[in-house]
Design brief:
By secondary structure, the protein is α/β, with parallel strands linked by helices. 40% of the residues lie in helices and 23% in strands. The protein has a domain at 2-79 and 191-269: P-loop containing nucleotide triphosphate hydrolases (Rossmann fold). The chain has helices at 40-47, 70-77, 95-106, 111-124, 140-152, 170-185, 199-205, 223-229, 232-242, 247-252, 257-263, and strands at 2-11, 14-24, 29-33, 55-60, 63-64, 80-83, 158-162, 191-196, 208-213, 216-222. A hairpin with a 2-residue loop joins β4 (55-60) and β5. α3 (95-106) runs parallel beside α5 and α4 crosses α5 (140-152). Bound molecules: adenosine-5'-triphosphate and magnesium ion. The site of adenosine-5'-triphosphate has 12 residues, from α1. Magnesium ion binds at residues 40-41, 85, 162-163.
């Protein structure tokens, strides 16, 4: 579904991605993480053909997005739902029009089907009453939720979310994660890629983590495995972001027992 082969990307001579390779299979979920500015959004842009690599190839549905024509790229992007870091809704369209526009351009749905899908997804993101509103009438968190509804309304084979919860309060973040989980549950075959600098979000979203650091793939694997047996940098990167959590909450994340025992000294009582 996604194949990144030996991608190198430079901006103004600075190497942002240095020989990065990874693959995502149909139906698979992957969280792409790493410190701020490590190149997560750049990976997504290369994948969608919005940027070209200096070296290597980025394949999406077996199309080489690094060298495809605009029309080839469009065909592939129609099979992909994308929610950008900044929401990316059209400001001059209502919520309803934003969703219909996506479905009209990317699906063969009839008007009635489009209407049903829109109602279902707006209800799914708990914003059923907003169809006639414009983006400027919505809060940041509401726009994110609409962005997610729009990414999924075309029932894509692949859904990509860039920082779906950044800057949102914990309650809204949890709602958004649940939405993505539930809505995608309706289409089991949808592959999903979430880019986030929030480790907690990343591990709640997917078992598999791809960690970028200084231009390289620092780790790629199941997060519990990386937390216990990754390189020192990986263990440190993951653990410093998890050990501040409330113990009850940490247990809910199903963190590995040896990790809990080491970092929560009162864990034995629970
Ligand atoms: N169009 C561009 N021109 C020049 N430099 C760029 C451009 N886009 C990104 N960069 C640089 O590339 C690096 C990676 O940026 P990118 O947005 O991919 O990081 P990120 O991991 O998504 O960061 P964040 O966690 O803040 O979202 C940054 O140093 C950024 O300044
Ligand atoms: Mg980014």
């Amino acid at each position: 579904m996604i194949r990144f082969e030996h991608i190198t990307k430079k901006y103004d001579g600075a190497v942002i991605l240095d020989d990065v390779s990874f693959a995502v299979k149909p139906g698979e979920r992957l969280s792409l993480i790493g410190p701020g500015g490590c190149g997560k959004t750049t990976v997504l842009k290369l994948l969608l053909g919005l940027e070209r690599p200096n070296k290597g190839n980025a394949y999406l549905f077996d199309t080489d997005m690094s060298h495809a024509s605009e029309s080839e790229k469009q065909l592939v992007c129609r099979r992909t739902g994308m929610a950008f870091q900044q929401g990316g809704l059209f400001d001059f369209m209502t919520v309803r029009e934003n969703l219909l526009f996506a479905m009209e351009h990317m699906t063969q749905k009839t008007a009635e089907e489009m209407d049903n899908t829109m109602q279902r997804l707006l209800a799914g993101v708990k914003l059923a009453g907003t169809a006639a509103m414009f983006p400027h009438e919505l809060s940041g968190g509401m726009k994110r939720r609409i962005g997610i509804a729009r990414a999924l309304c075309t029932e894509p084979e692949l859904a990509i979310f860039d920082e779906p919860t950044a800057g949102l309060d914990p309650v809204t973040s949890t709602i958004i994660l649940q939405m993505i989980g539930e809505l995608s549950g309706a289409h089991q075959k949808t592959s999903m890629l979430v880019a986030s600098s929030n480790v907690e979000i990343a591990i709640r979203f997917a078992d598999r983590l791809l960690i970028l650091h200084e231009g390289k793939v620092e780790a790629d694997g199941p997060w519990r495995e990386l937390l216990l047996n990754g390189t020192e940098w990986v263990r440190n990167f993951l653990s410093v972001r998890l050990i501040g959590l409330d113990i009850e909450y940490a247990l809910g994340l199903d963190l590995p027992k040896p990790f809990i025992a080491k970092h929560w000294h009162n864990a034995a009582k629970l």
